[in-house]
From TrEMBL:
Domain ATP-dependent DNA ligase family profile: 363-497
EC number per UniProt: 6.5.1.1
Keyword Oxidoreductase applies: no
The family this protein is said to belong to: Belongs to the ATP-dependent DNA ligase family.
Keywords: ATP-binding, Cell cycle, Cell division, DNA damage, DNA recombination, DNA repair, DNA replication, Ligase, Nucleotide-binding
Catalytic activity, reaction form: ATP + (deoxyribonucleotide)n-3'-hydroxyl + 5'-phospho-(deoxyribonucleotide)m = (deoxyribonucleotide)n+m + AMP + diphosphate
Name of the protein this chain belongs to: DNA ligase (ATP)
InterPro entries linked: ATP-dep_DNA_ligase, DNA_ligase_ATP-dep, DNA_ligase_ATP-dep_C, DNA_ligase_ATP-dep_cent, DNA_ligase_ATP-dep_N, DNA_ligase_N_sf, NA-bd_OB-fold
Length: 613
């Protein structure tokens, strides 16, 4: 059994390394000495979590609470120490160092159990119960362990290892190189639980690992990575891309949502459920868990966004409707959109997004009714449909939803042979208030997480200069001047992802499109993630350096007049040497993870599209 101190020594080492490759190698070496259960646990802990992204398992414990607790119990001037050391982990390390008693380190699993207990403490008096657990645990920890323990519970463990890097690490640890990358990405694509994938890899030997990974299949309850959609420059390009009949569906503008349903009685499925599902079930959780306390239902329904966030509680009407459908298990891919049931028309995107909230759900349900328009099905009655052709999946979906009317509806699909037919359907969709159409190749499987030309979006913006909006992550902000200085934030620095260098490349400063309430909300959220220096994998040219750096966490959608070459950046080629002309914020805090932002390759494609036309 590995000790927590070993893991903390590893964290310390990872922090000191600059290169991603070195970090991956270091972690791979460490994991080789762990058993498969430890690998599963470490896969979550390395991201500062106790469970995969789609399981609600937040610590909900602030640095402020910890500082208060420490000043009461140590008699130290904790606030000043915090200011000096620059971070909560170092603060606790300094205090613990003075208590010079060496303690025997706890096992990784023991710490994991304690972390779960903190997560599971909620309701009245939660803070004082959490405080008691934290103090009890801290008393058993060495200085280095306390440093990483408090960073974890305060949500500040920032090791900078992405999901992609972790998959590389699994490959390195098993076969010594990155040759398992593709098969690992496919496995994670159909079963987006990084710990489960890690466990499967470490249960296998060199000979059986490929087969074991290929056998990983869709399981209701565990999200599948959402398939992404490619963009084109013009209607003519569609006919160049597709030589035969295509499927055309309306493009809904709302919240991407996977609807999972499974039977609690399905013993076969339960056998396959992941280790930690049963672990979670055995815990006295006060929040909903996957086998929730709603004993009156014999099925479970869960809703996940493309960002792997569990949004089940936000849409009770969709959950109820899914329960009523006669099929006992399925995974549907859909877009949730605000819907006026009296007039039978769509509400705006902004109205739909008001439903993305944790409180006052019942009253918002009345103000903003919604419908989930389903355009794909990935699992039905015990069988995965992920590898079936698109046309066959859509037929199966019609079988499930053709007569339904209510909170879950079937998205229309037509078959088209010519660009003229596509254009006609596009015009009809736009006149109904939709954003455009999605054109899909009839053949080919679902391809989780992938973006290629088998699925193409044709948006109203196709006739505009930019072809499509750009998703960026905020890596810093500027304090602003004049009226904006009241908010302490005047503009933000947006970055795209560079796959070649594995960096976030800052390409422009965005200062327009931000109303006062957005500025306030942004400042509040971003200041919780502010940093003294940029994280290792952020690149920026000197003249764009922000006043405050922030951890890359919040994803925004940005529109602009055009993509331009950035002269001051030509040597460094940060962001492909490109920038945006007149960028403006369209949406702050998107339903996307940093792994989903626009890439340098995509922005170069978009730039070239317009150069050609
Ligand atoms: P992207 O998905 O390209 O990263 P984005 O989130 O801004 O960017 P859009 O440009 O709006 O997305 O287009 C793709 C999205 O459209 C899909 O992710 C999905 O949420 C939504 N969508 C709406 N209707 C459909 C449909 N019929 N088929 C597939 N996706 C659809």
């Amino acid at each position: 059994m590995r000790k927590y101190i070993d893991l903390c020594n590893l964290f310390e080492k990872l922090e000191s390394l600059q290169s991603r490759n070195e970090m991956s190698l270091e972690l791979a070496t460490f994991l080789k000495e762990c058993n498969s259960e430890e690998v599963q646990i470490i896969s979550y802990m390395i991201q500062g979590r106790v469970a995969p992204m789609f399981v609600k398992s937040e610590f909900n414990y602030s640095e402020k609470s910890l500082l208060k607790l420490l000043s009461q119990h140590t008699g130290e001037d904790v606030q000043s120490l915090r200011k000096e050391s620059g971070d909560i982990g170092n603060t606790v390390y300094e205090i613990w160092k003075k208590q010079d008693s060496t303690k025997e380190s706890l096992g990784i699993k023991e710490i994991y159990e304690i972390l779960w207990e903190i997560v599971n403490t909620s309701g009245i008096g939660a803070i004082s119960r959490k405080n008691a657990l934290i103090l009890q645990c801290l008393q058993k920890l060495n200085p280095l362990e306390s440093k990483y323990f408090v960073r974890t519970i305060c949500g500040q463990l920032r090791l900078g290892l992405s999901m992609r890097s972790l998959l590389d690490v699994f490959s390195l640890a098993t076969v010594g190189d990155k040759s398992l990358k593709v098969i690992l990405e496919q496995a994670y694509g159909v079963c987006a639980d990084i710990g489960y994938i890690g466990k499967k890899v470490f249960e296998s030997d060199r000979e059986s690992v490929v087969e074991n990974l290929s056998n990983i299949s869709a399981i209701p309850g565990t999200p599948i990575l959402s398939r992404l959609v490619q963009r084109v420059a013009s209607f003519d390009e569609i006919s160049e891309r597709f030589k035969s009949t295509v499927l055309v569906q309306p493009k809904f503008d709302g919240l991407r949502c996977q609807i999972h349903k499974w039977s609690k009685k399905d013993t076969e499925l339960k056998k396959n459920l992941l280790l930690w599902f049963s672990y979670l079930d055995s815990k006295p959780r006060q929040t909903n868990n996957l086998f929730s306390s709603e004993k009156s239902f014999d099925c479970e329904v869960r809703l996940y966004t493309r960002n792997l966030e569990d949004v089940t509680e936000m849409f009770p009407e969709i959950v109820d409707y899914a329960r009523e459908l006669k099929q006992s298990s399925f995974i549907l891919d859909s877009e949730i959109v605000g819907w006026n049931y009296k007039k039978n028309n769509f509400l705006s995107y902004q109205e739909t997004m008001q439903r993305r909230r944790k409180y006052s759900i019942e009253s918002k349900m009345v103000d903003v009714p919604v419908k989930a328009f389903c355009f794909d099905i990935l699992y039905l009655s015990g069988d995965s449909l992920v590898n079936k052709d698109t046309i066959d999946r859509v037929k199966a979906l019609e079988g499930v939803l053709v007569h339904t009317q209510g909170s879950i509806s079937l998205a229309e699909s037509i078959e088209a042979e010519t660009t003229k037919q596509i254009k006609k359907y596009f015009d009809k969709s736009v006149s109904m208030g939709l954003e455009g159409v999605i054109v899909k190749q009839l053949s080919g499987g679902y391809r989780p997480g992938l973006r290629n030309y088998e699925w193409i979006k044709v948006k109203k913006s196709i006739e505009k200069d930019l072809v499509d909006t750009i998703d960026m992550v905020i890596v810093g902000y500027y304090k602003g001047s004049g009226r904006r200085s009241d908010f302490g934030l005047g503009a933000i620095l947006g970055a795209i992802y560079n796959g070649e260098t594995d960096t976030y490349d800052a390409i422009c400063k965005i200062g327009t499109g931000m109303k006062d309430e957005i500025l306030k909300d942004m400042k509040e959220k971003l200041s919780q993630y502010s940093l003294k220096t940029p994280v290792k994998n952020v690149r920026v040219v000197d003249n764009l350096k922000p006043d405050i750096w922030v951890e890359p966490k919040y994803v925004i959608t940005v529109d602009a007049d055009e993509i331009t070459k950035n002269i001051s950046n030509m040597d460094l080629l940060i962001g492909g040497g490109l920038s945006l002309r007149f960028p403006r914020l369209i949406e702050f805090d998107r339903d996307k993870g940093v792994e989903d932002i626009t890439t340098v390759t995509e922005i170069l494609d978009m730039y070239n599209m317009r150069k050609k036309s």
